[in-house]
Amino acid sequence: MFACFAGESTYLDDHGPPAPRVLPFPSQVVYNRVGKCGSRTVVILLRLLAEKHQFNLVSSEIHNKTRLTKHEQVDLMKNISKIPQPFLYTRHVHFLNFTRFRIEEPVYINIIRDPINRFLSNYFFRRFGDWRGEQNHLIRTPGMKDDERYLDINVCILENYPECSNPRVFYIIPYFCGQHPQCREPGVWAFERAKQNVLENYLLVGILEELEDVLLMLERLLPHYFSGVLNIYKSPEYRKMGNMTGTVRKHTPSLEALKVLYHRMRYEYEFYNFIRDQFHLMKKKIGLKSASQPPAYSPAFLRELALRTPEPLDEDEELDSDLEDANSWLVHT
């Protein structure tokens, strides 16, 4: 007969220390999410999955600082490496080269979108917001003058306003090229560096036009993070959340403006097509036989201008107000 008091146990005396937790591989994942490419959809899913699978999700609240000094890069990478594993860290930030600074490299994932569709979504969201109401958005962006807010997108493109010209429309490639200053200059160097980083450092880069296939691939490749994600995404409860958004006042520019914009984004489209081909190749290797969607804009867009990219959720800049219900699943650092 023995007494066991609160906080005491004879287990260790009898059995020794418990075996350390076996970590899944990979146990360090970074999602350096590209703006206006469905990332709010994925972050909401991740918050639900983090509770289900007991991994640490750290979602940065910094949305407008993608380029970092060397000191900032090192500090961020060290902070990421200190997160208890298994973890998934997500932030709008251009690719960080961990190995360059002799820090263990995590596995990267990402999702991109047809470049013109991404540009249009961002253009109109900045001005008019989404389902939360245009008047509320006007209050949230008091610094934007009416002549900017109501600027016709065709005028913006055809008269070469900075927002509709390079380097501003050279947006997706820098997320994969990295922190080098030349990554922000539209050209072959940044394009090739971005492709190299994708091939060497990313487990998966999907396309928003085939989001369900992206989720299925993530479920196959990272089951300890994404197992069951497609069931959650298709559930009535999640669909109810997803149906509450959509950029307002969004419309297609004129044919003339689209031609100009397409030409300005030629490197973005070369990269998008590269990612799309790589994604389809990976689907084929895994045996995923799903019908792929035609690109939203290609030379064929001269014949058909309808916007075809789905809008799962309109995302990014204002995650917090829409994710309060999932807030208890977020691990803060």
Describe what you observe in this structure.
- The protein is an alpha/beta fold.
- 44% of the residues lie in helices and 7% in strands.
- It has a five-stranded parallel sheet with strand order 2-3-1-4-5, with helices on both faces.
- Helix 3 links the parallel strand 2 and strand 3.
- The protein is globular.
- The N terminus and C terminus are likely disordered.
- This is Uronyl 2-sulfotransferase.
- Belongs to the sulfotransferase 3 family.
What are the key terms here?
disordered C terminus; 5-stranded parallel sheet; globular; alpha/beta; 5 strands; disordered N terminus; 333 residues
Layout of helices and strands, plus pairs?
Layout: H1 11-15, E1 28-31, H2 39-53, E2 56-59, H3 70-81, E3 87-90, E4 107-112, H4 115-128, H5 134-140, H6 146-149, H7 153-158, H8 172-177, H9 188-201, E5 202-207, H10 211-221, H11 223-226, H12 229-234, H13 236-242, H14 255-264, H15 266-286, H16 319-322
Parallel strand pairs: 1-3, 1-4, 2-3, 4-5
Helix pairs in contact: 9-15
Could you write a compact summary of the structure shown?
The protein has 333 residues and is α/β, with parallel strands linked by helices. It has helices spanning 11-15, 39-53, 70-81, 115-128, 134-140, 146-149, 153-158, 172-177, 188-201, 211-221, 223-226, 229-234, 236-242, 255-264, 266-286, 319-322, and strands at residues 28-31, 56-59, 87-90, 107-112, 202-207.
